[in-house]
Amino acid sequence: MEASMNQVVIVVDDDEGVRQGFVNLLESEGYTVQAYGSAATFFKQPLPDAPCCLLLDMRMPEVDGFEVVAQLERSGAGVPIIFVTGFGSIPLTVQAMKAGALEFLTKPVEPEELLRAVRSALEAGAVTYRERQELAELRARHDSLTPRERETMQLVIGGLLNKQIADELGVSEIMAKTHKRKVMDKMQARSLPDLVRDAERLNITQTRSR
After folding, report:
1. Strand pairing category for 81-85 and 52-57
2. Strand, helix or coil at 105?
3. Residue 9 has pLDDT above 90, yes or no
4. End-to-end CA distance of the chain
């Protein structure tokens, strides 16, 4: 099956011959490939705005594969990773899986084994890409709230009644209801549980609760 052109495989390997071999194989299967000879070069570029996975050499000078994974985790990127190494061992495999690798392959990698791993990683990548998009849209909706509406949202997710919200904001109950309705509309929340879930995803805490 031909790969979707909106899927991207990122290859990071300091061995030019190995790197180019991966690129040739993946491009022959229809994948869009971004290849880098070092972690530093890779981190200078933004992640593609598409489902992607990372084919990552574990042993590289200066910044190794484990540090690349750690930096990606700190950024919240959530990119599925396939570790590739010429020095495979059971302890290293365990360490790679604990670090969050989806696959661990030992060089030289059989073409079909590599393609199978890439297909699996891109399936996971499609899920994380959708999640990133949804979170970005959620943040944009929250950014559209006025300061007063954000304050109202924090009170609403605490389960306060309209009268209590009005007292906290120092406004009439009718105005509190208006603020609450605008929050629900802008956040596209159909119910209080929906709004609470949105707040959790945005790491927003309640101002106070009943």
Report:
1. parallel
2. strand
3. yes
4. 56
Burial 81-102 (b: 16+ CB within 10 A, else e): bbbbbeeeeeebeeebeebbbb
pLDDT at 58: 83
CA atoms within 13 A on the CB side of 201: 19
DSSP 82: E
- Which of 69, 70, 101 lies closest to 88 in space, CA to CA? 101
Distance in angstroms (rounded) separating the CA atoms of residues 157 and 209: 8
pLDDT tens-place string over residues 58-90: 877 777 777 888 888 887 777 899 988 877 655
**Verdict on whether the full-model pTM lies above 0.85:** no
| Helices 147-157, 162-169: inter-axial angle, 10-degree rounding | 140
Q: Which of 37-41, 90-94, 164-168, 186-190 has the lowest mean pLDDT?
A: 90-94
Phi, psi of 9 (to 5 degrees): -105, 125
In sequence order, which ranges of the chain are alpha helices (DSSP H)?
16-28, 39-43, 65-75, 90-98, 111-143, 147-157, 162-169, 173-187, 192-201
Residue 103: other Cβ atoms inside 10 A: 20
